[in-house]
Design goal:
Blueprint lengths: L2 H39 L6 E7 L18 H9 L1 E7 L5 H10 L3 H4 L20 H7 L3 E6 L13 E3 L6 H7 L1 H4 L5 E6 L50 H31 L5 E7 L14 H4 E2 L1 E4 L9 E8 L3 H8 L28 E6 L10 E6 L2 E6 L10 H5 L1 H8 L4 E2 L2 E2 H5 L4 E5 L17 H17 L22
Parallel strand pairs: 1-5, 1-6, 2-9, 3-4, 3-5
Antiparallel strand pairs: 2-7, 2-8, 6-8, 10-11, 11-12, 12-15, 13-14
Amino acid sequence: MTKIQKTLLLSLTFVLTSIIIGCSEQSKNKTKSIITVTETSGNSSKPNIILFVADDHGLDAIGAYGNPVIKTPNLDKLAEEGVKFNNAYCTSASCAASRSVILSGQFGHATGSYGHVHDYHHFSTYDSIKSLPVLLEKEGYETARIGKYHVAPEKVYHFNTVLEADPRNTVAMAQKCETVLNSKKPFFLYFCTDDPHRGHPFEPDPWDAPNNFGNKKEGYTGVDQIIYDPKEVLVPSFLPDTKQSREEIAQYYQSISRIDQGFGKLMKMLEETGKAANTIVFYISDNGMAFPGAKTTVYEPGIKLPCIIKDPTKKISGGTTNNALISWVDLTPTILDMAKVNYTKNTFHGNSFNDIIAEENPTGWEEIYASHTFHEITMYYPMRVIRHKNYKLIWNIAYRLEYPFASDLWAASTWQANYRAKKEFFGNKKVKDYLFRPEFELYNLSDDPDEIHNLATIEGHQATLKLLKTKMKAYQAKTKDPWMIIWGHDTSLQGSGVNL
C-alpha cells in the first residue's frame, strides 16, 4: 500500500469514526430530551393547589393584617410561613360576581356574570368561557369543591368531585376533604365557607338585635366557640361607633374565628398526608365585610382584601410582604402558571403574578381595575374603578340614582340605628353623600385613605383625572365593556344583534 493510500485510509477512518460518535451523542441527547419533556409534563411534577375563599371577610379582621383583638392563629401562621399581599383587590364587591372572576380570569361584564345567579336575575356565565377547574382537569388534576358555589352554569364551572358539609362548620368541611388530600393525582381544592356572611334571618326581631353571622348558641361540632366582647372590638372609621355596630362586629369576629379553626384543621390534615411540601395554599375573600360602606361598594373596605399565599415549591422567606397591586382577575393565570399549564395570555384579562410573589416592591404592578354592576338586577348601579399608583378614580355610571342597598345590609341593626335616628353622618361620611354620589370620585389614597375628599372637581387635579379617564376607557375597550357606550354615546362596541 502506497503512502498516499495509507493517508487516505486514515482520513476515511477518522471521518467515519467522527460520524459514528456524533450520531451516538445525538442519539443520547435526543433520548435525554425526550425523558426531560416526559418528566416535566408528568403529573408528579405538578403541585397541589388549595384555594380557600371566605365569604365577606375584610382586611379589618385578621391578626396578620394588624388587628390585635381577633384570634386567627392559623391564618397568622400562614402569613408567617408565606407571603402577605397588602394591595390585593377583588373586581366586584358581591359574592357571585366576584367568584366568577376568580374562576375565569375575566371581568364579569365580559362573561355575563353581572351579579347573583339566583334564577330570577337571569345572570349566568357564557358557555364559551373556559374556567380554571375545567382547564386544570384537562391537565390531569383532580378538581374538587366544597361549600359555597354561587356560580353558573355548572358545565362552565365543572369540578370532578363535589363534597358536602355544613359550610358554616369549616372543621367538618376540612374532614370531608380527606380523600381529595390523599388523591394519587395532583389536586385542586376549592374550599369555600359561608362564614362570615350574615346569617338568616336578615331582619332581626327586635330590629336592633345583632345579626348572628352564622353563629349558634349551641355552637358547632368540633369547633371551640370564641366569644368577643363588643366593647373590645375595633370599629372601622367608615362605620358609626355605636352599640349596634359593636355587637354586630363581635358576631362577625366570632364567625371568622370559626373559619380559622377549620383552616387550621385542613392544614394539619395536609401535613399528615406528607404532601404539604408540594401544595400551594391561597387564603382570600370574595369581598369586604358585610356592612354598609364595605360590601357592595367599590370603596377600599369593599374591594381591598386579604390575600395570603404559601408556596413551598419556591424558596421564599416566611413572613414576606408584597406591595404589588394585584386583582382577583389575576388569579386564574397565576394558578395555571403554578400548575405548569401552558395558555395563551390574551385569553384572560388578568396577568400571572407567579414570578413576583417573593418580591416586596416589584416593578410594573401599579394598576388595578374594578367592574361592579350590583349583585341584584333590581339594584342597578354600575361602577367602574381604576387605581393607578396612589390615585383612585370611581365612575358612578348611574350617579343620578340613589345608591341601592342589599337586603342584608339594609336590615342590619348597624344601618337601622342610624337610619331611624335620622343622623347626618354614617361613620366618616355624610348619609346624603353615601346615598347620592357624584359621577366621578377621585381620591389620593396616600393622603386620604378613607376616601373622603373628592378631588375630581378640584383645580390642580384635572390632569390626573384626565389620565385616569383615558386609562379607564382603554380598559373598557380592551375588555369589551358594554357600558363604554356611556362615554359620549360611543357605539364602537355595538354588536350585530346576534348572540354569539
